[in-house]
Design brief:
This protein is α/β, with parallel strands linked by helices. The chain is built from six helices and five strands. The mean pLDDT is 97. The structure holds iron/sulfur cluster.
Length: 177
């Protein structure tokens, strides 16, 4: 099976993409790089839930660094932006660029992200940042629109079956409002 790096933000959102990628003949390698998540306790909860699900599903799991200072320095000036605004594009870019670099470093030639599963996110906005990250790193970004074909509904069903923790906000402190 061909390996693909799957950037994942949490276990519920990763559940359906893992299933679909396996069905499509890929072997996903999960990369958790989400320094946007605040507070750190919430970050740990989301990370551990995903790590346990990967262990159970026999999927490799890797964690990036918690560069929260980097996130604040990049998004400073965009605190008041609504979701789907400029701050979110910066946030996607930061996470996808690091994912592309991780793929390159590990000789995996493509990557994608679970972010598109959410009905609260604009897939094209994510894809623009995925393409940019890919062109800056020399790996391919696969434009999986995971919310298609009831992807979000299926991911919530899998999350429920597995008693997964489900967060109530996107991730950063601004999205808690
Ligand atoms: S709302 Fe979500 S996508 Fe947007 S900046 Fe905050 S954590 Fe990132």
């Amino acid at each position: 099976m061909k390996k693909i790096v799957l950037h994942a933000c949490c276990a519920p959102c990763a559940s359906y993409p893992i299933k679909l990628l396996l069905n499509d003949g890929y072997k996903p390698v999960v990369f958790f790089y989400n320094p946007n998540i605040f507070p750190y306790k919430e970050y740990e909860i989301r990370k551990n839930e995903l790590k346990n699900y990967c262990l159970k599903s026999e999927i490799d799991f890797f964690e990036g660094t918690y560069d929260i200072k980097e996130f604040y320095s990049l998004t400073n000036g965009y605190k008041q932006e609504p979701e789907k605004g400029k701050r979110c594009s910066i946030c996607f870019n930061m996470r996808l660029l690091k994912t592309a670099q991780f793929a390159k470093k590990n000789n995996i030639d493509c990557f994608t992200t679970t972010l598109s599963v959410s009905p609260h996110k604009n897939s094209e906005q994510i894809f623009i940042q995925g393409r940019l990250a890919a062109s800056n790193s020399g790996v391919e970004f696969l434009e999986y629109n995971f919310k298609k074909n009831d992807g979000y509904k299926i991911s919530r069903m899998i999350a429920k079956e597995n008693n997964m923790y489900a967060q109530k906000y996107c991730g950063c402190m601004y999205s808690m409002r």
